[in-house]
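New to this. Comment on this protein:
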Amino acid sequence: MREELAGFTIGVTADRRRDELAALLQRRGARVVLAPALRIVPLADDTDLREATRTCLERPPDVLMANTGIGMRGWLEAAEGWGLAEPLRGVLSRSYVVTRGPKATGAIRAAGLREHWSPASESCDEVVEHLVRRGVAGQVVALQLHGERQPECTEALESAGATVIEVPVYRWAPPTDPAPLHRLIDLVAGRLVDAVTFTSAPAAEALLRAAGDRTETVLAALRGDVLASCVGAVTAEPLVRRGVPVSAPARARLGALVRTIVDELPRRTVTVKAGGHLLTLRGHAAVVDGELRPLAPAPMAVLRALAAAPGKVLSRTALLRTLPRGADEHAVEMAVARLRVGLDAPRVVQTVVKRGYRLRVD
């Protein structure tokens, strides 16, 4: 198959660039579940942002720490609306400018400013370490926040002797419609998606927070069958802290994130020979002799259970445990019948009278 992700289902928790990420995944054959975990609320009229801007004009910062491209652009646009853009650019042009990553760098350059240093890791911690090593005692540092306060960064700089002006350009808020996020949580908990993508650390935190009393179930799925794919190490941190193995590209880019998923997901598939056919199990489909055969969740669950023990007979009771709660043994028979039709390979699943079913491996 040319579509590397055909047969896989992937959840997208991003808001601002969700359509772009979804298109990249769909172009490679994936089924995409859109479920923004957060949304960005600009603070152009916020009194805290206006006050931070006036403070920067009254006490020109020696250092500007630019965290995000959207944040820096939003700050300068808000200043434009207040008639303060030129004075603000003037004081920032005399600052030592550090940018956390390429997007922030691009925004700084677009504003006619110049960055002096940027970390390879795109990590706030590395930026703070660089500034502390360089020396910030007695200096004023303008810290452009990305979505919420960063008390650990502020405290580290203040401990090194700096005066920190926190610049709150936008904040994270819950999605306008929480239903898609809760549906994605259902799918993750039921292991009915193959991967979930995260493009910000707050989005990862928001998904776990929204899971409520199912948080441990969601974490167990992410530690096992569901791939947690993060755009970078900073985004991955809340999951890593909870023992979730993550995949992340070396460079924090959407294209690199998709390439990482393309490399990783097919390696997690199960391939078996049964009934004279070669079967590869993907998220919502089986590849039978190179042909993709989409399957409903119940037949797919039965096939996964049988493929986990090729040739071994599984009772109806054992297979019933793989189906949604409330199903009965008749539901197992229906799932097996639908599985045979869906595979279009009737010899793959064998009925063993009075015992159950098995994959025919002889």
Observations:
- The first strand starts at residue 9 and ends at 12.
- The first helix runs from residue 18 to 26.
- Residues 311 and 359 are 5 Å apart (CA to CA).
